[in-house]
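Structure ticket #2291
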Amino acid sequence: MIRLEQIKLPIGHDTAALNKKIAKKLRIRDLANLPEYRIARRSLDARWKPDLFYVYTIDVFPEPGLEAQLQNVCRDSGVLFTKDLSYVLPEAVKSMQQSRPVVVGSGPAGLFCAYLLASCNLAPIVVERGECVEKRSIRVNKVWDGSSELNGESNVQFGEGGAGTFSDGKLNTLVKDKMHRNRFVLETFVKFGAPEEIVYVAKPHLGTDMLKRIVKNMREGIAAMGGTFLFGLRLSDLQIRDGKIGSLYFTENEHHDVLPEGFIRENDGTIRYATDRLVLAIGHSARDTFSMLHEKGLHMEQKNFAIGVRMEHKQEVIDRAQYGEGHDTDLPPADYKLTKQCANGRSVYSFCMCPGGFVVNASSEAGALAVNGMSYSTRDSGNANAAIIVSVDAADFGSDHPLAGLSYQRELEKKAYEIGNGCIPVQRYEDFKNNRTSTSFCSIRPVMKGKHRFANLRELFSESITDALLEAIDSFDLKISGYADPDALMSGVESRTSSPVRIVRDQDYLSNIKGIYPCGEGAGYAGGITSAAMDGMKVAEAIIHEYHHII
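Resolution: structure written out below.
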């Protein structure tokens, strides 16, 4: 394979222009002889506003004889000769033990773990406390429009697809990837319905509408390979024997007339299943499950995370700052990434930026409120929003208990619910600076899913966190003109940025209880859809390797 780098073309170019550039790099005169190629990466170079360019990395696959010729001809520093950078699926297991591996949670980590297990003939059972994505979507929309009460088991956080289902659907990650799992994740999304461009664009995203379809298709694909999905079952207890997992106990959130083989309904109504391999892909919001696991002796550590607000601006302000005046209207809505180390030692940064997105009520507990950002694939709401968050640690939690961060998180959400009277509390930035509740919107109006209400967000935070937010937002205005607009909107609380807990695991991805594999964002080993999916793959690989070792 030949990799070509730094191929630069103006915005709006056509395929013919790209072909000519590739041929020139390879010193091929006749375009009819151009070998097969694929786009490995495409990024936007906006350094010379308003003149913008796409920069490509291209993988070329010439016939063996032609590749040898090209090696002799090409001396360009932008031409690399390398091996194909593809993920290699583990060898399938020919036979397995009686009990099937159980994956608890059907977010990205759980789905990709199950997908690899099913691909290798291990017939996983995926158990999810929430509903399938079709039912879940209907339920969430009813909560947002006020026609239904929050369901603590199926909501923006819980249900098929995990919390990422109601998000912008970002697929970029900074995780080191020597095994090429990242590309496999993207190619798998394409296989189940995503546009092919997500494999090569620098900052791929899907949007909640595409994610819902892809998640459903993945479920059907896993089932076709022997996997089983059970919705409406919450892991409520474990039986541990001699330091090993023995049986799992589930509480029904919806009744199941028929249960798969091996699932037994006990006299108290709980459902038991015996297994020697349990993958915990429970997500970052399963607080009741974290508490149960801690009581059972699963080793956990307190984990730092970040809390703050959603900042909302008109998308045109961000586009102008990133692309320049008079930019090409065919460009996608622009995003941003901002950081600030504040005078009081606090770190503040933007997170989960949603171009053309919505601020959404992302609550999962009665009497508590959290917000998140969400976009559709078109990103055309007219507003941009992002979390502006401040790092917090044990000094803020007030305890070194493993679950202290979880308690801190919950208290913030209770305050947010109270000051918003159950609605998303929202405030103009000028009013936040002056410590007063807003009374009206001005040049920017909120684009939200869920009811909102004016409140003073300062009531949520300590003075130290408030000072850091103010310092950071004012400094961001130097990078994006208009960021500290008095009419910019703040809403809260943004508290589910990452898991406040890490479930300890060893080099074989096992916890201190043999047979339990902590996995994904909830276990503290990922941060986003792609990294969670990749972690699910790692855990699946460990389980597959163990089966091969046993056999």
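Closing remark: The mean pLDDT is 94.
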